[in-house]
Amino acid sequence: MTTNLGTVRIVGAGLLGTSLGLALSKLGVDVVLTSHSQKSIDLAIEYGAGRAAAESDNPNLVVVCVPPAKTAQIVAAELVAFPSAVVTDVASVKNSVLEDLAELGADLSRYVGSHPMAGRERGGAIAGRADLFVGRPWVICSTSKTTPEATKLVESLAQAVGAATVAVEASEHDRAVALVSHVPQLVSSLLAARLVAARPSDIALAGQGLRDTTRIAASDPNLWLQILEANSSEVLAVLKAFEVDLHSLVAAIESGSAQTASAQIVKVLETGNLGVERIPGKHGTKHTEYSQIVVMIDDKPGELARLLTEVGQIGVNLEELKLEHSPSAQIGLVELYVVPEAEQKLIDDLVARGWRIAG
Amino acid sequence: MTTNLGTVRIVGAGLLGTSLGLALSKLGVDVVLTSHSQKSIDLAIEYGAGRAAAESDNPNLVVVCVPPAKTAQIVAAELVAFPSAVVTDVASVKNSVLEDLAELGADLSRYVGSHPMAGRERGGAIAGRADLFVGRPWVICSTSKTTPEATKLVESLAQAVGAATVAVEASEHDRAVALVSHVPQLVSSLLAARLVAARPSDIALAGQGLRDTTRIAASDPNLWLQILEANSSEVLAVLKAFEVDLHSLVAAIESGSAQTASAQIVKVLETGNLGVERIPGKHGTKHTEYSQIVVMIDDKPGELARLLTEVGQIGVNLEELKLEHSPSAQIGLVELYVVPEAEQKLIDDLVARGWRIAG
Question: ipTM > 0.95?
Answer without folding.
Answer: no
